Amino acid sequence: IELKTAALADGSCLGSRRSPLKGSGMALANLREYLPGDDARAIDWKASARMDRLVVREFEEERSRTYYLVLDRSGSATFGSSISKDRRILEVAASLIFAAHRQNGRVGLCIVTDRVEMFIPARPGKSQVIRLVQALVSHRPEGRGTDLAAAFRYLCTRVRRRSSVIVLSDFDDPEFARDLSLLRRRHEATAVRVTDPAEDSLPDVGQVFLEDPETGEQVLVDTSDPAFRSAYADALAAADRRIEGDLLSCRVPGIRISTDEPYDLPLRRFYAHPRYRGD
Questions:
Q1: Does the reported pTM lie above 0.85?
Q2: How many domains does the chain have?
Q3: Labelling 214: which of 60, 142, 254, 275 has CA 20 to 30 A away?
Q4: CA of 126: how far to CAs of 101, 105, 134, 178, 212, in Å?
């Protein structure tokens, strides 16, 4: 897993965030005129000689960021044409875990189906990375339904430090918006929406049984019927508008990743954006 995710992690896909605070970190922020009471150790003597007055160095405060990954492992995530959405979610999560570790970040994990099935508090270090990856590999979901709101409520009560919460899901849940909005007030939130191209185009294969992966309900449909195909396309478009509208109303930026395309490119584009990096 580390070899497969190394290129993405080395590329710092999570981005190098600038702190708005000034402190005694290692990154030079600016020079300013010396004021009574300033630490004499902060005087830049060479710059003072050039400017013919005492100036001191100010530094950007370096802070380790805290990340929480919320993984949707419900029944709908088992769908996939080339690979399943669940597999893609696990791959992206592993990449983000290694990327955060290589930036000395603290990383935690929350796995949700129709309930919160696992929660690992954020910690730094290689041992935490190993623990999280082992959890990704070994966990077998018990629930089949989707309740993202349960994870959002859980994080609101358990996580006190302001963190960056990254939600990896297909967002096939009509009830997540209210609690995501509450989470957004306490933490920074990002939605990674994983989709599959087979969901967008229904194949014309005659009569088939379609099964809901979360409830097990089956229905016989005629995929050759133009009326059914039109209704399917309309329902799919309506669901897509609902999800995008809910994320927009919660002011949560989204990254869309398809199972048939490399996932590093959309991640890099998003985290390299000046608005995210604080430039």
A1: no
A2: 2
A3: 254
A4: 7, 11, 12, 35, 39
